[in-house]
């Protein structure tokens, strides 16, 4: 692993999370209006008899993503035609098995409200366990990343210029401790409950549906984060509760070379651009 200044990276992530607080709060307010007053006790304060936001999201999202996509592969090399046909068949079956339409619909809805974020990578054991082992570790996967869990280098003017980008996620603590992918620091991890608020004090979007009662987990979970460093083509796994000075005496839980697309694991869907931003 290259010589990285982990304490500075952790401070930058904390700063960028504060910068994104306004964007998270604006999205939170829009979603409250979209779900109306009767969705939950945390929905809109006043009745929304003509819910144009919900109508707009429902119509446009169904228009953009109506069903699972399908792929069609071809080759000019006649010797590879059978291999390409087998790959096409596998991809279409895998897309259907992953219920790709559901994933893409969430990403599209996010983009209509703020920004849609997709992570395209190989599934880790922690992610596979959280999904109930519906997919084996190491298989390709596409997952939506919520803005509440997202961070990036806010000094960059375009996502192609960021020096780091990543997201927070929750993993089953026992799976992380038992996995050989992580360093010895996994022994120091402690279980954490699902938070109602982000570290900046803004309410998380998933509180709208589960109110303040749904904090009890069936299993013990821990909050981790993945950080992609484009210049080094490196993916770091860190504990989310890094604390002041993390990195001076501790190593990342995992450091892995990125072997995927040149653009990295994150793909953005934006319905509008702002000059210089």
Could you characterize what this model shows?
32% of the residues lie in helices and 17% in strands. The chain has 277 residues and is α+β, with helices and mostly antiparallel strands. The radius of gyration is 20 Å and the shape is globular. Strand 5 and strand 6 form a beta hairpin. A five-stranded antiparallel sheet has the order 3-4-5-6-7. The model has no long low-confidence stretch (mean pLDDT 88). It is built from eight helices and eight strands; from the N terminus they run H-H-H-H-H-E-H-E-E-E-H-H-E-E-E-E. The longest helix has 17 residues. Helix 3 packs across helix 5.
List keywords for this structure.
277 residues; alpha+beta; 5-stranded antiparallel β-sheet; 3-stranded antiparallel β-sheet; globular
List strands and helices in order, with pairings.
Elements: H1 6-19, H2 21-35, H3 52-64, H4 81-97, H5 100-113, E1 116-122, H6 125-130, E2 140-144, E3 150-152, E4 165-172, H7 173-178, H8 207-210, E5 221-229, E6 234-239, E7 254-257, E8 266-269
Helix pairs in contact: 3-5
Task: Estimate the strand proportion.
Answer: 15-25%
Structural class: alpha+beta
Radius of gyration: 20 Å
Mean pLDDT: 88
Apparent shape: globular
Helix content: 25-40%
**What is the ordering of alpha helices and beta strands?**
HHHHHEHEEEHHEEEE
Which residues form runs of ≥5 with pLDDT under 50?
Answer: none
Report the strand count: 8
Distance between the termini: 32 Å
**Major β-sheet annotation:** 5 strands, antiparallel
* Strand order in space, largest sheet: 3-4-5-6-7
Total helical elements: 8
